[in-house]
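Entry for the shared binder. Reason: the reviewer on the internal report wants the predicted structure included alongside the sequence.
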Amino acid sequence: MTRPLAALVALALAGLPALAQADPPVPDTVTFEKGVEYANPDGQHLRLNVARPKGAGPFPCVLFIHGGGFRAGSREGYNGQIVRLAERGYVAVTVSYRLAPKYPFPAAVHDTKAAVRWLRANAQKYAIDPDRIGVTGGSAGGHLAQFLAVTADVKEFEGDGGNPTFSSAVRCVVNVYGPSDFTKSYGKSVDAAEVLPLFLGGNLEKARPQHVRASPLYWVTPNAAPTLCVHGTEDKYVHVEQAEWLVERLKAAGVGAELLKLEGAGHGFKGKDAETAERATIAFFDKHLKQK
């Protein structure tokens, strides 16, 4: 991975707002399309960017969900990575979703599920194999990706974002330092006390049921999708124990789950840590999505 790309990956995985940036270089083998509307809840005109190989397909697909504490961030931070993945034979998509505090939980869940349904509804147009859709994200995006993986077709989270006859299930997930249990985030995160009340309608004392309901850990069943968690051991925003608990719970349910710990890494991988996370992510998707 080149250094400029590694820096971009680090920014996207950190869940930080993307800096203004030019579109990534697009090779002749890839089609890159920006600003495609996939849903319009409350007049918000939610859009996605898509990179795909030129060819008949159908190709496996990966959905990228940006971070930013559920209240900020931009899909544009993943543009470089979706183009790279398209070069490897994937349709890769990065999406926007409604943000807190104006739109608290579960609006973002409704939106990301709507995005998966949209991908299936438009599978023929974009040469997507609807049976091979994976998802990834960093920080808040990791949480939303994991939530997709543990609540496939749970009706209360589907929302009304369109294409209701299609499934929102995903085949696998790479969760990059996303929280799994909000009830145990306070005191272990430098910004949980600021961020979570905006997303969940109050702090743990005032809104405990919503903290439980929004935590992927409590939705794990044997039907959950195979999961790779990537987490730094020195993460000050989402403690590594959040990934440990999730992987342990998934394994107990008989679900394939792996944890890649990056020793000494914090929240927002840089340099070799970003490169290691990138390689592991691609390898995991190759394993679970390249074979029909």
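Summary line for the report: The chain has eight helices and eight strands.
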